[in-house]
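Async update (no meeting this week)

Hi team, since we skipped the sync, here's where things stand on the single-chain job. The sequence we agreed to prioritize is pasted below, unchanged from the tracker. I ran it this morning and attached the output directly underneath so nobody has to dig for it. Comments welcome in thread, and please keep replies under the output.
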Amino acid sequence: MVFHVQLAHGSPTRQVRDFTNVKQLYESIGKAHGIATDDIMYCTLNTHKVDMTRLLGGQIGLDDFLFAHVKGVVNTAMINKDGPALGLTISDNGSGAAFIKKVRPDSIMSRAENVQVGSIIQSINGTDLKGQRHFEVARMLKEVPIGSEFSMVMVSPKLAMDAHLKDRPTGGGSGDVAAGKGKKTLRMKKDGTAVVEEVDDAQTKLVMKVDDMLERFSGIRDIELSQSIVDLAREAGEADVFAEKLDEQLADFEFPDDFVLDVYELITAQ
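Output:
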């Protein structure tokens, strides 16, 4: 299978193929465009804009066009944590970096200068975060004492010039794997394999509900992780077995009991 890709800030179209996970995809894009793999922040589907609703997750529609967002300007923000909730949702780019997926309006983060959706979090209080997972970054932010000020260094993506905002090819895809019944996608699985599947609308909606719950409990969003949680719950058969499987396979996330029970009830009620 061949996918077409451009750099989001503007470039010729190149082709990538033969990848089974996101990191391999970034390596293929870097090689095709002659840039360092580490410079690639994430990909969006069928839009060059920093649109968090069109992010590449664990699935790519076979007719989707990829746009790779590349590191640009470095900014520093000083944040006064004057309450327990920062109002920040973090996601994982699949290659050792966490980025800001959402900032809640009227939150601590929304009032801070230089905090932008789509920016990679490079360091917190001088601690380099390269290689840290999104849940580790969320945990670090949660552990900042209330009433203290902390620094956050972020890298925002290069943006297209006005001349590039029109006539960008999309390959006909929607970027929404649930948009049409029977749409075929390439799913990159946790075990390192990739398979072509037809999208199940009900399954996709269930995974999105789990992802919403994940955000509420942990401050992170991760469609691939949410898919894994759904798969484990369905394999378990019982709530206790589900909890054991989460402890065995996803212990690093430290899911609270309320989350485990709520997710299991949601999935088994379908």
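Quick observations from my side:
The chain has three domains: 2-71+159-177, 72-157, 200-268.
The two ends are 34 Å apart (CA to CA).
Reply here if anything looks off.
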